[in-house]
């Protein structure tokens, strides 16, 4: 017997709700995200050289910034 592949549930009415176009806000958010990820990748080698207490301070500050966004 072959294994079942894919989702066999009935479609939900929510499946019909789809945006009809890409919003400008999505582009700005995506660009900002890619920019931040690029900066993090460039900083990664320097982060490895940080003393543990300094790395902890940066981590705490970063977590505070993320908490403000949520």
Show unreliable segments. none
Query: What sort of overall outline do the alpha carbons produce when their principal axes are compared?
Result: elongated
Amount of helix: 55-70%
Termini separation comes to: 47 Å
Order of SSEs, N→C? HH
- Strand % is under 5%
Number of helices: 2
Oligomerization category of the chains in this entry: single chain
Say how many strands there are.
0
Average pLDDT reading: 84
Q: Describe the sheet with the most strands.
A: none
Task: Please tell me how large the radius of gyration is.
Answer: 21 Å
Structural class assignment: mainly alpha
Notes on the protein architecture:
With 70 residues, the chain is mainly alpha-helical. The protein is 61% helix and 0% strand. The radius of gyration is 21 Å and the shape is elongated. The model has no long low-confidence stretch (mean pLDDT 84).
Care to give the gist of this entry?
The protein has 70 residues and is mainly alpha-helical.
Jot down its keywords:
70 residues, mainly alpha, 61% helix
């Amino acid at each position: 017997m072959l294994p079942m592949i894919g989702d066999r549930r009935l479609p939900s009415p929510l499946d019909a709700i789809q945006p009809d176009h890409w919003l400008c806000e999505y582009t700005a958010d995506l660009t900002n995200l890619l920019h931040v990820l690029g900066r993090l990748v460039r900083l990664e080698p320097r982060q490895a050289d940080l003393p543990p207490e300094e790395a902890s301070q940066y981590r705490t500050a970063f977590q505070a910034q993320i908490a403000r966004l949520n």
